[in-house]
Specification:
The complex is a heterodimer of chains A (343) and B (503). Chain A contains 13 helices and four strands. Chain A has 343 residues and is an all-alpha fold. Chain A has one domain: ABC transporter involved in vitamin B12 uptake, BtuC (Orthogonal Bundle), CATH 1.10.3470. In chain A, the strands form two sheets. Chain A has a two-stranded antiparallel sheet with strand order 1-4. A two-stranded antiparallel sheet of chain A has the order 2-3. In chain A, strand 2 and strand 3 form a beta hairpin. Chain B has 503 residues and is an alpha/beta fold. In chain B, 33% of the residues lie in helices and 25% in strands. In chain B, helix 4 packs across helix 5 and helix 14 packs parallel to helix 15. In chain B, 47% of the residues are buried. Classes of the chains: A mainly alpha (343), B alpha/beta (503). The interface between A and B is large, with 44 and 64 residues.
């Protein structure tokens, strides 16, 4: 191997571990810039406030693995939140309200999955439609009024095994998703389908059902994220869940999940991606960066990550091409003396 | 009476009213290797797609082990013991070998939903051993060579406990050594009692492997019999439906002395080393090399798709420091790439759209750059009739619906519409049937006689000898020898390629 190649290998190693490296670099940089950043309370704060984005991102990872996308998670959150909040203020018990909300969110995922897998409409259009219509529906139901549920959902600060509840739910979900994706048939088949849908059909996989499954999981995660976010914020406003799809997609992609399907992981990928997204916005607050600028910096970081992803793919392709000759040595002639010839 | 594993009884199939299989009746004896040959579009693939459950059939019936067999989908064909190894492999490159083998039917840990990874791994090891692959079951498929992937497909067929294994053109992307290995394994499967259906354009291989040969032409069975009844010449005649005296058209012109492309000391680390060659106007220069000899890579560098480390590429007397495909096209170069499915064609676009692609900018109005449709349509019509592209409606039919030979004519056609002075063709006749090959040679002859220079890359030594003025032999990224027309000799060229004796 010559020098040029070993340098390429080094670059590749760096590119392959970009999420982790980025994480460490940003972490160290923020810690050096402001000592308050480097404190246990702040870490807990980062993870707790990123929990609901992380939950969304786990669901998004399932959808991205199929090569699709779900833009409707934010609207899903608003609808689920509206149902949940209105039931609570009307005196329904907490468990019933949560159950109904979760069912509604999952149903929206099912609806997306049905249109995409059965009616063969492209995911982008379907979920863009659900996003717009969903927000409209929730606005209609709530009359765009804010609903306060601090009293009814008092468990945001609760701790399970010493861990704040939002963090516990998030980590538990990552664990379950990790097991499903790596150790069950549908999980592995999801990767296969994302890699080559045609071949998946030929291999006898039920592509329709797998696609449906991914969107249902995504809808379920959106509903779960609603419960966590609502309990943390204590209030359902008309902007609830607005713009979260970008952060969820960013978290998954920053964690190494490809937008082309078939590549990605919830652990460590999406988990690190989520923390990264949250850490950046948290760090910017500490550094007292202009509020308006903050909204522009996170997208920049994400574009950088997607750029790195593209570079990585290119380089992998180039490196995996087989070399024809070994430089500075005598090339070996093929062993076979026989050659096929065509008529 | 023989023990028959599979029977086709008067099977019919039409696509959009066009019959592709007419009354096909064939008996497949158990445990035989059956060679299935025919031109592109003869119905071989359709027949196997019906058997493999990929497409349904219209009329007639199939009997499998004497029972009526109607596959609903590929999965039911698999359950019935039929494994179909497609020409384009169907492996998931992001998954491990083991996962690819069991993707449709993972073993679980008793009643839990969890995969029994240990069992998957050990089973895979067993099957890999059967196909002589010394690889870890955990390696992801994207790290395997085409030959290894082919063998993984075979292992997959074995894991599904198939009794009938269909191979569709399995050797097109294999090296000579990998092909030998595949044949040894097919032979072993044969001895183990499997029935094998082998489809190929490489008639020698069919003759070597098969017990029986089935010839299809225009959707009908022309002849069935033991292989002893078929000479290669006879196979060709049966496939084409007429006697083919010459496989190569007569050359009508001789090369000039005028150099149009000169390459001096071209090197790229790990790819090619010190390439020097001259291409003359009106010359048909062949480049012979085995898989992995660097011939396609050289073509890509010349055309500017890949960079170079050192050396000069001089086109028509001017030195170009940095080549790119756009510049090459401006210099009137054309490049028919090796892989028409992935690089040569927009498969879902119409034939006309494909043909117009390169020359589009020649048909725009000066200021506004609006395409002058009528002129373009006229040119495309001319091209279709000139190249005799067999297509229902060039402006409606998608490229993917064409047979291999006609697809290749579309690729060549899109470049010819630009009147190239240098044409580089990389394996233009691979996967193309005998009749269409002749037509492609004729097209190339024609443009050479009009003064263009052609660089013809091929691993089929006979075709190079049949049509070229000169042959350069490549190996391990170097030029190993050069033969003038008077020196053409099959053995010598091969010896040079393998670096045995001689130069």
């Amino acid at each position: 191997m010559n020098g040029n190649q070993s340098r390429q290998r080094l670059i590749l190693t760096i590119l392959k571990n970009t999420p982790t490296i980025l994480f460490v670099v940003i972490f160290v940089a923020f810690s050096l810039l402001d000592h308050r950043f480097f404190a246990r309370a702040n870490f807990e704060n980062i993870i707790a406030s990123s929990a609901f984005v992380g939950i969304l991102a786990v669901g998004m990872t399932f959808v991205l693995l199929t090569g699709g996308i779900d833009l409707s998670v934010g609207a899903n959150m608003y609808i689920t939140g509206a149902i949940l909040a209105m039931m609570l203020v009307n005196g329904y018990p907490l468990w019933l309200s949560i159950l109904t909300g979760m069912l509604a969110g999952t149903a929206i995922g099912f609806f997306n999955g049905f249109l995409i897998s059965k009616m063969k409409i492209i995911p982008f259009m379907v979920t863009l439609g659900t996003l717009t219509a969903g927000r409209g529906l929730a606005l209609l139901v709530t009359q765009s009024a804010a609903i306060n549920v601090t009293k009814e959902m008092p468990f945001a600060a609760a701790r399970v095994l010493g861990v704040p509840l939002p963090i516990f739910v998030f980590l538990a979900l990552v664990f379950v998703a990790f097991i499903v994706l790596n150790y069950t048939s549908p999980g592995r088949q999801l990767y296969a389908m994302g890699n080559d849908p045609e071949a998946a059909k030929k291999a006898g996989l039920n592509v329709t059902r797998l696609t449906m499954l991914a969107y249902i999981v995504c809808g379920f995660c959106a509903a779960l994220a609603t419960v966590i976010a609502l309990s943390q914020q204590g209030r359902l406003s008309a902007s609830f869940g607005e713009g979260v799809e970008f952060r969820a997609i960013a978290a998954a992609v920053l964690g190494g999940t490809s937008l082309f399907g078939g590549v990605g992981a919830v652990f460590p990928g999406t988990l690190i991606g989520t923390l990264l997204v949250q850490m950046i916005s948290n760090g910017l607050v500490y550094l007292q960066v202009d509020l308006y600028l903050q909204d522009m910096i996170s997208p920049l970081v994400i574009f950088f990550a997607v750029f790195v992803d593209a570079q990585r793919m290119n380089l992998i392709k180039r490196l995996e091409r087989r070399n024809i000759r070994v430089e500075n040595t005598v090339g070996q002639a093929p062993v076979s003396k026989k050659i096929r010839a065509v008529i | 009476m023989d023990d028959l594993i599979l029977q086709f009884c008067k099977v019919d199939k039409s696509f959009f009213g066009v019959p592709v299989l007419k009354n096909v009746s064939i008996d497949f004896p158990r445990g035989h290797i059956i060679g299935l040959i025919g031109e592109n579009g003869a119905g071989k693939s359709t027949m196997m797609n019906i058997l493999g459950g990929v497409v349904p059939f219209d009329g007639g019936k199939m009997l499998l082990n004497g029972q009526e067999y109607v596959p609903q989908d590929p999965a039911s064909a698999t359950r019935a013991g039929i494994a179909f190894i497609h020409q384009e492999l169907n492996l998931f490159t992001n998954l491990s070998i083991a996962e690819n083998l069991f993707i449709g039917n993972f073993p679980h840990l008793s009643v839990t939903p969890f995969l029994n990874k240990a069992r998957i791994r050990s089973k895979t090891q067993e099957y890999l051993k059967m196909v002589d692959l010394d690889l870890s079951p955990d390696i992801t498929v994207d790290r395997l060579s085409p030959g290894e992937r082919q063998l993984v497909e075979v292992a997959k067929a074995l894991s599904q406990d198939a009794s009938i294994i269909i191979f569709d053109e399995p050797t097109t992307s294999l090296t000579a050594r990998e092909t030998e290995k595949l044949f040894a394994i097919i032979d072993r499967l044969h001895k183990a009692g499997k029935t094998i259906i082998y489809i190929s354009h490489i008639l020698r291989d069919v003759q070597q492997l098969a017990d029986d040969i089935v010839v299809l032409r225009d959707g009908e069975v022309v002849q069935v019999g033991p292989k002893q009844e078929f000479s290669i010449q006879k196979m060709i005649s049966l496939m084409v439906g007429r006697y083919i005296g010459t496989l190569y058209p007569e050359r009508t012109s001789t090369p000039t002395e005028q150099v149009i492309l000169e390459i001096k000391g071209l090197s790229k680390a790990g790819i090619v080393h010190d390439i020097n060659l001259c291409l003359h106007k009106g010359e048909l220069l062949g480049i012979f090399g085995l898989m992995g000899s660097g011939r396609s890579e050289l073509a890509q560098i010349i055309f500017g798709m890949e960079g170079k480390d050192s050396g000069e590429i001089i086109v028509d007397g001017t030195l170009h420091t940095k080549q790119s495909p756009v510049k090459s096209i401006q210099q009137n170069m054309a490049f028919v790439t090796e892989n028409r499915r992935e690089e040569g064609l927009l498969m879902t676009s119409t034939v006309a759209e494909n043909l117009g692609l390169v020359t589009l900018r020649k048909y725009v109005t000066p200021a506004a750059h609006v395409v002058r449709q009528s002129a373009l349509i006229e040119a495309i019509r001319n091209s279709v009739s000139l190249l005799q592209i067999k297509v229902n409606d060039a402006f409606r039919s998608q490229a993917k619906g064409l047979s291999g030979g006609n697809q290749q004519k579309v690729v060549i056609g899109k470049w010819l519409m630009n009147n190239p002075s240098i044409l580089v063709v990389d394996e233009p006749t691979r996967g193309v049937d005998v009749g269409a090959k002749y037509e492609i040679y004729s097209i190339i002859n024609d443009i050479v006689s009009k003064g263009a220079a052609v660089l013809f890359i091929s691993s089929e030594i006979e075709e190079l000898i049949g049509i070229c003025d000169r042959i350069i032999v490549m190996g391990v990224g170097e030029i190993l020898g050069c033969f003038e027309k008077s020196e053409f000799n099959r053995e010598k060229i091969l010896q040079t390629a393998f670096r045995e004796g001689g130069k």
